[in-house]
Amino acid sequence: MSQFPDIREYTALPRMNALRLSPDGTRLVSVVQSLNPDGKSYGTALWEIPQDPGGEPRRLTRSAKGEAGAEFAPDGTLFFVSRRPDETAKESGGDTAALWLLPERGEPVRVATRPGGIGGVRAAGGTVVYASEVLPGDAATEEERRKARDEAGVSAILHEGYPVRYWDHDLGPAQTRFFAGRAAREGLEDVRDLTPEPGGALDEHLSFDVTPDGETVVATWRVALPSGDVRWDLVAVDVADGSRRTLATSEGHDFAGPVTVSPDGRHVACLREHHGTEETPIALDLWVVDLSTGEGRAVAGEVFPASVAWAPSSRELFFAADHQGRRPIFRATLDGAVTRLTSDDGAYAELCPAPDGSVYALRGAIDSPPRPVRVAPGGSVTTLPSPTPPLDLPGTLTEVTATAEDGTEIRGWLVVPADATAEDPAPFLLWIHGGPVSSWNDWSWRWNPWIMARHGYAVLLPDPCMSTGYGQDMIQRGWGDWGPVTHADLMAITDECLKRPEIDEQRTAAMGGSFGGYMANWVAGHTDRFRAIVTHASLWNLDQFAGTTDGANFWQREFGALGSARYARLSPHRWLGEIRTPMLVIHGDRDYRVPIGEGLRLWWDLQRSGVESKFLYFPDENHWVLKPGNAVAWYETVLAFLAQHVLGEEWTRPPSLT
């Protein structure tokens, strides 16, 4: 290990994104993201991960277009999705994602294509099911109809229901459908359209699995409700004839992914989300449904799982869920007995239970990028070889707590630079997480405190009210009262950290993105204790935001009808006249979750009010900043702004923006 990389080196580090275990437990495959040769984008490839700590990872695929979506069939066949050209075909299939098969020995073979590309894939019982976006109408004529739209210059979409956008892309006119075929040596045979008229029911939030006999697809299914609202049910689609029956539906609940069928084919596990209301916050249960009767029950309540997987015995489930600033692995039996499996500070994901009782997973943490591990039945953790390098962190990580005004304990993580001392204390940065129903418990490639520590800042990552992993009461504390209660929690734990001699209580700043940006705006209007505030993808005028976000129906449940008193009371823009702190506003034009209008309005309000401010605008980024070059520009601009106002240095335009 060497010194923690600078910003440009950091953006070039490879990252593990997924993990899959073959049914017999002999092969472990990961999707790894790395910087493309052009340095302007990321690509993905499949890697085999050794199950012996002394082994070496082996790259399985290599193409300019990359590979993702790895899934094993019961016989050990490995499927993946890629836009790579098929050198054995006269027509390569263009630039759309196709379904490929990778033999254990040999070259990849393309087995299925669609004009709209192929998304997720599942295989069982000799059946292969995949999802593809298809224009409404006969799937057999889609290619000609796509060509006709293109030649006519038609990009318009006629909507007859809600929603119309999702995160960073438009919905429609194509709709997601399921296709199923019989696995054969040369590809798929008897491919058929299982859902010819889905009406958008499979668009977004889609999660599905196939029963072990290959006869049924179990999936989430969106149902349109009056007044623009929606609900997600759980359905079973017959592979033979496409008939559909509802397995789980409930007014006031969504049945959401991950959807996973038990190895014995008797049950399906998913998440059941209780809709939030103006009085009651959202809540999640780990829900198990009997596939024959549709009867369902919670086997773990009030949890926020990141991964769910059946044990090979089908008698228990493993899940990873937020808990006290960590994300441990838990074991749940079908009668609801839940035990914690891992006891460390890790944040686990991509759970892969093995026949021998162990669980393979990706383990991340605030101080560790995700790496492959094997968790023994007793909970001990063995780190496996990884295609990603270990990192030498430029500081220490400490757990901190404070007491809120109502007596609630507020906890968080504090990153302190290695050279910070009482004689030379570090400047302080409060970093507020998004969500708001979320937690600081895992490594983040986008919001990384160690980059800030490398530049000398102590970074506080607090979990105030509405953070997950502390029970429903913690979420209830701030539900419908975002600004005031969250602000009080943040100030309480900030005050506690600033008592430390190695932290400079005079040189302080605050920042956050999404809900964290909302809170950065709220903090700016309610205190002048910070020398600088950075607000990314932030909510500014709630009444404006709630009608233009991609999921307005979700916000209406908590805040009520547009124009209600709650919007006005909690909207940061009402305190514009109180803002004295210099602000850096950051926003992407393709952000549909918090539309660009929020950033533009905030920027104009600050300018017309004479508040010292800058606006970092990304025309081609969404809610996050994903392109490597733009990520460099983001960090360089934030650091330059903080250096000017927190460290008292002269403003220097970031090198990436000169």
From TrEMBL:
It holds the Pfam family Peptidase_S9. GO terms for biological process: proteolysis. GO terms for molecular function: aminopeptidase activity; serine-type endopeptidase activity. Keywords: Aminopeptidase, Hydrolase, Protease, Signal. Residues 443-646 form the Peptidase S9 prolyl oligopeptidase catalytic domain. The keyword DNA-binding does not apply. InterPro entries: 6-blade_b-propeller_TolB-like, AB_hydrolase_fold, Peptidase_S9_cat. This is Dipeptidyl aminopeptidase/acylaminoacyl peptidase.
